[in-house]
Structures are given as structure tokens and as C-alpha cells.
Amino acid sequence: MTTTPGTFTRALEALRIDGPKRALAVLTRGLRGVVVSPGAGAVAAGPVPAAKPVVVALPSTSGAPLKISILMPVYNTPADVLEAAIKSVLVQSFGRWELCICDDHSSAKETLRVLEAYRGFDPRIKITRAPANLHIARATNLAAEFATGQFVGFLDHDDELLPHALATMAGAIEAHPDADVVYSDEDKLEENGSLSEPYLKPDWSPEHLTSVAYILHFMLVRKSLFFELGGLRHEFTGAQDYDLSLRATARARRVVHVPKVLYHWRKIAGSAAAVVDAKPQALINAGLAVRDVVCAEDPGAAVSPGLFTGSFRVEWPVDPDRPVTLLMLTDSRSKFVEGRGEILMVKHAIDSILTRSTFKNIRIVVLDNGNMLPDVEEELVSKGVTVKTYSFDPPFNFPRKINAAFDLVETEDVIILNDDIEVISEDWIEALLSHSRRERIGAVGARLLYTNDRIQHAGIVMGVNGPTTHIFHNQPKDDIAYCGYSHLVRNYSAVTGAVLATRMSLVREIGGFNPDLAIDYNDIDFCLRLGELGYRIVYTPFATLYHFEGSSLVRHSVSQPDQSAFLRRWGHLVDADPYYNPNLPRDRTDCAVGAW
User: Fold this and answer.
1) Which pTM does this prediction carry?
2) Which residue from 13, 301, 370, 432 lies 20 to 30 Å from 467 (Cα-Cα)?
3) Are the C-beta atoms of 572 and 493 separated by less than 8 Å?
């Protein structure tokens, strides 16, 4: 007879905390094929709610239909909100659920009265009482010991599920039988009963998750994986769910996002739902959870606070001895720029790079259209810049020029640059290379600002105000935007080619830029082709530069042949950008959601 993974470890933990009786129950339950009772304090009797159940067959070796176990630790919960939480499970349209409640040694009589009232009310409700106050992580793990479903979900004792929540999640599992983690969107439940702050999330975004706890509620984890990971970790109390989402997604075969609000997170004075820094130790533990996961991948990684409370910056190691080529295409034009006067853009850009950048192992290569004056070229060469001339027959084709420029690159790392940029953050090169040198990253883009300190680029999304757009365009740079997206390292389908870091091995793998897109969309197409091969596209606000493009997104009329060619190739993504929730607006760039 075999045991499920981690049985003996859990039995020893149960022996230490609860004594031999609990240890024996855990050990017995771990024997495959043996069914045990819920244990002391759990009752399985009473009527089944009248809601018609939805049964989903789970493709598995056992052939058993899918069952979802909801884990709910309870501690001195106000009676009305606890009852609301329980009722939100009872009314689920999906019938194959069980609610595993662990009373974490509550002393409040109103809490105990509610729990007692639901003993025996429904056979799917299992209630046990901890022998002492274990706190949320250990209490949740204790509740999980009675779970018999293939997936465990997490419901806080003062929150609520929507009636179709489990049915919707079950449908996602049925569509993706290899899913190990499934998560949904959520909103907040105000004290007056109204709903607010819808959190409409992107599909699975690894860099986004190490920047902020975006998965949150509602999350299901395959139970076998939950136990393999050792359940929730007490040392990360306050951020135990974030810690679990980091560890579970790192091990999952597939992570599935359900783009529907299925969970109401109740705002109560002093709760994290109401104020993000209501629990300072939770923020500390969240950072430790991120550090634990990223350092397991690379011990040299560093984690520091992000640009707003509750966010984090992961800095993957950057070898200073490994050079990078800064590849700049120019037509050697001058322009009047507010606060700077008339400038020769290529010279201004290179001067800012050389004087403000902290990463020094750079090779600057400039490809000019033949318009550069001899004295300018001489000055640039004296500063170590390689200047080459590009000859072409009209009409101009940007991909052909950039592909010719790639032939001049002798390093693996390359950062493509417009000539109308100016460095702001001194470690911008390190910020880009920190991600672009990672194996599964295809391209990395920067935060670009106009001279009035409004956002020119913070990532590109599909299907907003046309085929593509710069999200958060023209928003103030200090506005953290919807859910902090503009101030997070996160994933997008594409980033602009004005400042784009990648690797030459990837350029060769996809054949460079596509000459069929002579003027427009070629940088987006470059990113999408990388994404098609499984490489992730990353935006980082920690590489910030000025971009002297005009303050209007439409600097010229879009090339209709280019747009037609782009849509023929990528039209299926215009209404299905995985990093732009389908419930966010399509007619504005600030992600502002109307009345909720």
C-alpha cells in the first residue's frame, strides 16, 4: 500500500501540534484507497441545498468526477459575515464541492454559534476545531487534511464567492485538464454592501507575479501539488497566499486565468482589503516570499521594495564583464526640444548615454542614412562610437535597415535605440539586461516619457483604440495607474522598438524584423513572433528615458498596407490580448472601469 506525497511529514507535524490521535488520522488518510471520516468536530449529515448541481468529469487516471474542496480557517469572525461566507458556498450552482472549515480555537460566542448551527446542515460541510490558536497558515493546512477533492480553493472567513464561481472554475479545469493552478478576477465588497475596485487581471504573467501579489482571489490549486509544496507556510503568515501562489505557479504544468469576477473581498477596517499596508509584517513576509522563490532559481537575485507599497523589484544578476551593443539608427536630424533648444538628436542621445549610464561595458553602433556631417562623425568616433553608413533605394524600409544593423553587432546582448532619447535612470542598461539575459525572455522595453513628464510608453496592448496602442499614454509619470501596472515590471504582448533589449541568438532564430511591415507595426510583430515561440515580453519602469516623439500618438497616418499585413498575421490577437483583460475598456488607454 502506498501513501500520498508528504504523508509522513504531515503526520509528524500533526503529532507535534495536535497529538497522536490527529497524527494517526493523517497517516491513515494518506494511505491511497482508504477513506477516513472528517475527524473530531466534523459532521456529515443534513439536507442538500436545492440548487441544481453541475457535475464536471475530470480527466484523470481515477476517472472520478471533479470535486473542489474549499478551505476556510475561521477565527472570531462576526456572525453575519461568517454566515454570508458559508451561504455563498451553499448556493453554488456547481454541486461537487466540500467546505472544510477549521475553527482556529475561536473564543467569540457568536462565531461558535454560527459554526454549531451549520454542523450537520449539509453533508458537504466539514467542521473541525484546532486544539490551540494555530494562526491562518496552519489552520488552513489542518482544514486541508479533510479535503477529498482534486483541487483546493481558499475562501477567507469574511469573503464571498459568486454563485457561479465554482462552476466557472470547473469549466476552466475541464478545458485544461493539465491545469495545476486556476485563478479568477475579483472585486471588493464595501461595508455598505456595494461592490468596488474590480481587479481585472491579465493571463498568467510570471514577471507580474514577482512584482506584486496579483493572483490573490479566487485561486484553486491541485491538491496533490498543494501537499507536495507542504501546504501554506506559517513563517509567511500574512502573505501565506502570495507565498503559495509563487511556489505553486513555479511548479505548475499549466496556470489558467478565468477572466471573470468570481470573488468578493470584504473591506473591513484594519484589513488588507481596505488598506494595503494595514499589516506591516505581511508586507515584510511578502518580500521574503518573493526572495525565497527567485533565489531558488538564481541565488544572485536581489529583491527590494518596488515603486509603491506592496510591490517589489526583482533584480536578476547582470555580469558586468559581458558586453552589450547599443544599436542606434539615425537620419542625423536636428530638432527643437522643450527645455533643451535645438539639438542634433543622435549626438544628444549618445552624450546622455555616456555621461549618465552606470553600466560601462557598452559598444555603441550607429547606422546613419548618409546624412551625418564629417565633424559629427569624427566626434562620435573619438568617443568610441562605431559609425556606419546605410545606403538604400527608396522607398525606405525600416526592417531592412535594422536587419542590416544587426550584422554589425558582435555581442549576444543588444539594445535597439531610437536617436531621439535621453537617459533618465542611470541604471537603465542594468534594468533592461537584468531581464533580457534570462533564458525565456524575448524582449524588454523601457518606460519612456515626454519632456512634460507624461508617459509615452509603458507597454503595448492589442485591440484598444485600434489594432494596438500604448497603454497609459499621456498619463502623469507619478500616477501608478490601474492596479499599479505602469509602475510594475510586468508582461505585455509587445513593447516599443524605441528602446528594446533582446539577444542576437533570438534575432537570428526568428529572422530579424519583417520587411513586409515597412514602416508600422514591425516592432510589435517582432515581439509577437518571439511570444509565439514561448518567449515572454517584459516591461520595466526601472529603465526610464525621455523620448522626444511628438505628444500625439499619431505622428503620421498609419500605413494601410502595413496595417492590412499586420492584421492578416495577428488579427486573432486584437480581441484576445492575453495581457489585457477582456473586461477592460477598448476605447480608452487608462483602463478605467465604469460603474461597478
Assistant:
1) 0.87
2) 432
3) no
Interior/surface letters 266-284, b for 16+ CB within 10 angstroms, e for the rest: bbeeeebbeebeebeebbe
408, 386 Cβ separation under 8 angstroms: yes
The DSSP element (H or E) to which 315 belongs, if any, is: strand 312-315
Dist. CA 408–CA 348, nearest whole Å:
22
Task: Say whether 504 sits in a helix, a strand or coil.
Answer: helix
Domain range 37-273, its CATH number among 3.40.50.800, 3.40.1280.10, 3.40.50.620, 3.90.550.10: 3.90.550.10
The answer to whether residues 547 and 596 touch, using CB atoms and an 8 Å cutoff, is no
Return the closest-CA partner of residue 92 out of 120, 125, 119.
Answer: 125
Instruction: Tell me whether residue 375 is exposed, middle or buried, using C-beta atoms within 10 angstroms of its C-beta: 0 to 12, 13 to 18, 19 or more.
Output: exposed
Q: Assess whether the region 37-273 and the region 324-574 belong to the same CATH fold.
A: yes
Decide: residue 3, CB within 10 A, 0-12 exposed, 13-18 middle, 19+ buried: middle
Is residue 185 a contact partner of residue 219, using CB atoms and an 8 Å limit?
Answer: no
Query: Strand, coil or helix: what is 304?
Result: strand
- Cell digits for 528? 509577437
471 contact partners, CB below 8 Å, separation of at least 6: 458, 459, 460, 461, 464, 485, 486, 492, 580, 589, 591
Which grid cell is 590? 487608462
Query: Domain segments of the chain: what residues?
Result: 37-273, 324-574
DSSP string, 56-82: -B--SSS-PBP-EEEEEEESS--HHHH
Instruction: Kindly give the residue spans of alpha helices, DSSP state H, lying in 51-190.
Output: 79-90, 109-118, 136-144, 165-175
Please give the DSSP secondary-structure letter assigned to residue 486. G
How far apart are the C-alpha atoms of 484 and 188, rounded to whole Å? Answer: 17
The set of residues, in sequence order, having a beta carbon less than 8 Å from that of 550 and lying 6+ positions away, is none
Task: Supply the CATH classification number for the domain 324-574.
Answer: 3.90.550.10
Average pLDDT per run of 10 along the chain, which is 596 residues long?
44 47 47 29 32 45 82 96 97 97 96 95 96 96 97 97 98 97 96 93 98 97 98 96 98 98 87 59 95 97 97 98 97 93 96 98 96 96 97 91 97 97 98 98 98 96 96 95 95 98 98 97 98 98 92 62 96 95 95 80
* Residue 565, all three cell numbers: 499585413
Q: Please, what is the end-to-end C-alpha distance for the chain in angstroms?
A: 53
Q: Which amino acid is at 112?
A: L
Burial class (CB in 10 A: 0-12, 13-18, 19+), 84: middle
Q: Given the DSSP bridges, would you call strands 68-74 and 97-103 parallel, antiparallel or unpaired?
A: parallel
Cα→Cα distances 111→82, 85, 123, 161, 369, Å: 8, 12, 20, 20, 76
User: How do residues 284-312 score in pLDDT, each as one tens digit?
Assistant: 999 999 999 999 999 999 999 999 999 99
Give the span between the Cα atoms of 201 and 591, in whole angstroms.
Answer: 11
- For 38, residues 6+ apart whose C-beta sits below 8 A from its C-beta are 44, 100, 126, 128, 146
Q: What are the CA-CA distances from residue 557 to residues 456, 520, 564 (Å)?
A: 18, 10, 14
Buried b (16+ CB within 10 A) or exposed e, 511-522: ebbbebbbebbb
Instruction: Name the grid cell of 469.
Output: 496602442
**Cα(436)–Cα(316) distance, integer angstroms:** 10
